[in-house]
Design a protein that fits this description.
Shape of chain A: globular
CATH class of the largest domain in chain A: Mainly Alpha
CATH topology of the largest domain in chain A: Butyryl-CoA Dehydrogenase, subunit A, domain 3
Number of strands of chain A: 8
Oligomer: homotetramer
Strand content of chain A: 5-15%
Largest sheet of chain A: 8 strands, mixed
Helix content of chain A: 40-55%
Number of domains of chain A: 3
Chain lengths: 384, 384, 384, 384
Amino acid sequence: MLSLIGNHLAAIRECARENDRAGAFPFDVFTGFRKDGVLGATVPRELGGLGVTSLYDVCLALLTVAEADASTALALHMQLSRGLTLTYEWQHGDAARQQLAERLLRGMGSGAAVVCTTVKDAGAGPPTSLTPDPVGGWRLTGRKTLASMAPIATHFVVSARTEEPGRPPAQAAAVVSGQTAGLTVLDNWDGLGMRASGSVDIVLEDCHVPEGDVFLRGAVDAHDDAQLAGRTVSSVTMLGIYTGIAQAARDYTVSTLARRGRTPAGAKALVAETEARLYALRTTVGAALGTADYLSYEYAGDPAVRGRRMMFAFQRAKLMVNKLAPDIVADCLTVIGGASYAGANPLSRLYRDVRAGSFMHPFTYPDAVEYLSTEAVETGRYDG
Amino acid sequence: MLSLIGNHLAAIRECARENDRAGAFPFDVFTGFRKDGVLGATVPRELGGLGVTSLYDVCLALLTVAEADASTALALHMQLSRGLTLTYEWQHGDAARQQLAERLLRGMGSGAAVVCTTVKDAGAGPPTSLTPDPVGGWRLTGRKTLASMAPIATHFVVSARTEEPGRPPAQAAAVVSGQTAGLTVLDNWDGLGMRASGSVDIVLEDCHVPEGDVFLRGAVDAHDDAQLAGRTVSSVTMLGIYTGIAQAARDYTVSTLARRGRTPAGAKALVAETEARLYALRTTVGAALGTADYLSYEYAGDPAVRGRRMMFAFQRAKLMVNKLAPDIVADCLTVIGGASYAGANPLSRLYRDVRAGSFMHPFTYPDAVEYLSTEAVETGRYDG
Amino acid sequence: MLSLIGNHLAAIRECARENDRAGAFPFDVFTGFRKDGVLGATVPRELGGLGVTSLYDVCLALLTVAEADASTALALHMQLSRGLTLTYEWQHGDAARQQLAERLLRGMGSGAAVVCTTVKDAGAGPPTSLTPDPVGGWRLTGRKTLASMAPIATHFVVSARTEEPGRPPAQAAAVVSGQTAGLTVLDNWDGLGMRASGSVDIVLEDCHVPEGDVFLRGAVDAHDDAQLAGRTVSSVTMLGIYTGIAQAARDYTVSTLARRGRTPAGAKALVAETEARLYALRTTVGAALGTADYLSYEYAGDPAVRGRRMMFAFQRAKLMVNKLAPDIVADCLTVIGGASYAGANPLSRLYRDVRAGSFMHPFTYPDAVEYLSTEAVETGRYDG
Amino acid sequence: MLSLIGNHLAAIRECARENDRAGAFPFDVFTGFRKDGVLGATVPRELGGLGVTSLYDVCLALLTVAEADASTALALHMQLSRGLTLTYEWQHGDAARQQLAERLLRGMGSGAAVVCTTVKDAGAGPPTSLTPDPVGGWRLTGRKTLASMAPIATHFVVSARTEEPGRPPAQAAAVVSGQTAGLTVLDNWDGLGMRASGSVDIVLEDCHVPEGDVFLRGAVDAHDDAQLAGRTVSSVTMLGIYTGIAQAARDYTVSTLARRGRTPAGAKALVAETEARLYALRTTVGAALGTADYLSYEYAGDPAVRGRRMMFAFQRAKLMVNKLAPDIVADCLTVIGGASYAGANPLSRLYRDVRAGSFMHPFTYPDAVEYLSTEAVETGRYDG
């Protein structure tokens, strides 16, 4: 996967600035990814993919792409993480889930399917809901936001809650083809950063979803720590994106100083601290991914313990990433000075992109404070 | 001055986002400032201005404008600080300098003159130079950058070095009318932030400058601590701009939390620290401005001591401003979460604008480290 | 007051290290303070004191003492702040309170009375209580801790709650002579720092307190924001102590570097940041004290508003003091290196002493987070 | 080794406080270590030791001991790291070095030899020197400081420079028996922390050293990057000590909060950040040790490259350790509040001990700034 990606880095780097300015999605890059099989990297070989299963490897791939352009990495993450979680469904789900997962994975493996996952409801409206369709199957209605990679998606996996008369609402994920009547992909992404990630809103108006195209999960209010594993797998590789941003800022800064030929005292101190922080950032992320891989594939104990341990490592690493990566980028701007403030300077994009890390789910900073402090103090489970 | 400015705040606030997006200068706002006399605020009453002399008051005015839009404050700073330094020339300069200063001040007082000062040479070309013009007077050639407020300037005060056969080069500031042949104001500002400040480049090609329109200073290599006073007066009020940005971020955040109605633990900690930092930011800036006022207007001792004391207080405050203000804004984004990452959210502009503080002269961070540590250790002059 | 204190600084400095090692109280220094009238500094002139009323001035005096020895300053604070609050009682209390306050103040003014105030109950026992004494007056029972300056105190002001049959418990402060039967001053102070402050425990076993020797306050559960003013006056001047510690660390470091003659890059960066932080620390503390003085003596509005504004300024400053002062000291140790780790090096005492700031009431860090965030978000009272 | 150490942890923990107070060396603990073979842990099996070669394992052992008492770990580090470097001499040195190393290692393996290494010269005297002894061999004169574990040492490895007529001075390490005439072990250690580590001064007055008991190294001014490997091996395992201190602070804090039963908002935020920092601390240290092991035992390339890579990883990790570990301990004090300020509270010892990390060689903070920034900017060797 890394060598396939390597072929695209120059192209990604080249269009990064222009797409950032325009808030435009890098369509050509993803066409290349699709042709090379990058979009099927995490699909099992039997289903036509490259069979990458290691979260560490996916994280490293995203890190490498993010060094060239973080928006591209964020969009690519959508497809790669979906491959991983669908593979889990294909291997461990019941027959219905296996079938649905296999259909999507085969499409992803062949390059026919590009799958955008949307979790967050947009705005203040009612939550996105699945209600029984009188003709059978479901009707999906709502509005989703931050649907990265949506501009090229052929399918959408949409989080929703079921609303059925006489039954408690349940969590679900509906698979919807991009052709479905009632589905509109807006072109409304205009963020502070990650501007080329196509993180638009999706409007769903009474979209029909066939019976078999919904992954049903537990009751909305049920609390099942085993699910923390899936949530970790879905998101933990994104830590590589912010690491790649920090690495790119450091590399640009160090090479600029080398060209300038003289490093004043204040810059030396910041460079030394940047080296130390980047080292800590890379090793912390590496450790969290190693833990996630171990717990995903080798640990055979209690699924609730697995979920909690994965999430606890993930969240500790994430809190540090969201501290270290922005600090590194900010110090790089301080070292480079006024030149870095020009829109055309790569640091000015990295400064905006790196800030997205705080908002990445799970968890936001306040939720992470609650989660980590409760785990540590109340449950006392993790002493090391 | 504050009440005059108050009349414009709603208009400034209203166009801030759109001008930021487009990188457009707020022409209408400055038309209003000119009509109201705001642009002559720091011109002596005798010369048609409002007679504001207190650096503290100017800083507070810029703070108030910056709460609505920092770009506008940065551009306004150009005119207000020029009024202060020209008034000093008018009061203490020799006859030639008095005459030149008076001419400009009368223009600024009547609203006819808008004076943009440019210090920094653009790019890697030769330094901007004043050479003797065979027809008398000087010829000015070079390229300047970060000339905020240039889009509406009627005059430019351009730093340059004289190059005369048989004489050592001297520092000078040439006053050039915007109509001068050879002067071109580019429309090339495209910064990470401060996008509506019109901080463009100015190209000067053999511009004729009359003999009397140049302020001559000492030799280029001469070191005169007395000059630190003028450099402080020119720039210290800008500390208000970054204080205003931090205040705006805090106010938006606190009022948003109040509307949300529940503040989680992690947000409480950040809000408390934001309150404390903002308090320190305001009081530190206030103290530096109070010191600057005292030394400018009441201190009657050694001019070199005055210069050093003004600059030492200014640089200590500036280092803290460039630490506290970005930290406040970043924590506000963390508290508000994903919503703050939308281009339309005020925090996303404040996050970009606040970063300009590090690059503001004098000094950049590495230069400030050198300056402050040398003053403290080697000269031992300032024990308190 | 400052010039009186100046006479003692050399002596304070000289015995600081030895008293710190031994955890011994500086009896001689306080004998000198008593003779000179320093212990009566905040007693009105009419009652024999120096009549200092300005909180700012008291803070500056404590800062100056703390530069020589923070423990001495902490102990001195006890007497000086008591003078201030008793003066308030003497001026604004009812006849009974005036009488009690006057008696104590006259003693403090003449040097006969040294008054130690104890607020915090020790350990896990029942709260210190005042119960009616069958012979009239009260009986005081309990155990207090952190009673700085107790080794030389002639009187103790002891916070307690009344417990009377048929009445709700009330807050009270009992004045107890050091001769009272049942009162024992332990010699049990052994802190990480502030080791010469004599912050021992006081045991009270059925001590008789005459009827008139108790200041009664409101019900235990009553919440009266006006009381925040008194709590601020009692403690806000302590901010000077931590400022003095930071100043001493900086002065030692800068003069050591000057002697060494070469300042490496990493040290330059830390020195520059220390200068900036110390400037912010001094100006922030100065501002909070200025506000406290204004609200104490000039503000004539709603007492609840006064209390809240005093405490809000105090707490914001305190949070910054507890961030800036330890950071300054820690960076000074880093700059000086291994030499600072010797027990005989002044920095090793400052490093321990400065940490006491976080525990100083009101408030601890968690309480300050709650207080400041609630004030800011929920009440929205303070926009600037 | 870990299980052997495990047997002693309760005893170490028990006497930690009393030894810290008294500045006393834990003789009994080291008698136990000697009996169990812990003092020979890093001696090859063939020479009577346990044959531990992994730096990671030694670091983990020191971490575990440091959780109980950091002073003990610091003293133990002396012996364990000497075993590692002597084993290297035994395996790779010339015949003379092999013989000397083997003699010491056999002593360490049998428990007969306890070897204290001293690098730093004390005070301002002339550097410690080896001059030719007229009777053959050398004469060693000088004064060394910070010789941890000296109170029980049977041998000393003393850094010195040779001074021979007609030859350039060379670096050397002389092995001196504790019985040697002219050698005095002072009892003068009185540090801010690490008070039970016995880090005393050693006075050497014309001590005779046999010809074969000196390891000669290169010229004093020679710069050989290959030597960075040895310097890393000698010191990198100490990172575990500061990690153990941070872990102990966190464990005490979390268990205290669990007992208190309610965690306020401000404490939650600090606990969450402590968890994240400790995770980063452990993973960063683990990575640096893994790199050191790989380069020590598996890397077969250019010795200068090996030296530089080992040191670059070590120094980046060390800078983070010296940031993260003190921050963790300080935040734990803030969370626990006034109780942690009592001398008897474990946090008050950890607060003093953790500060030693900044002074540990190589390098101090200013030297690390110079080293890391130069490596990064000027040599550009390390891009990842």
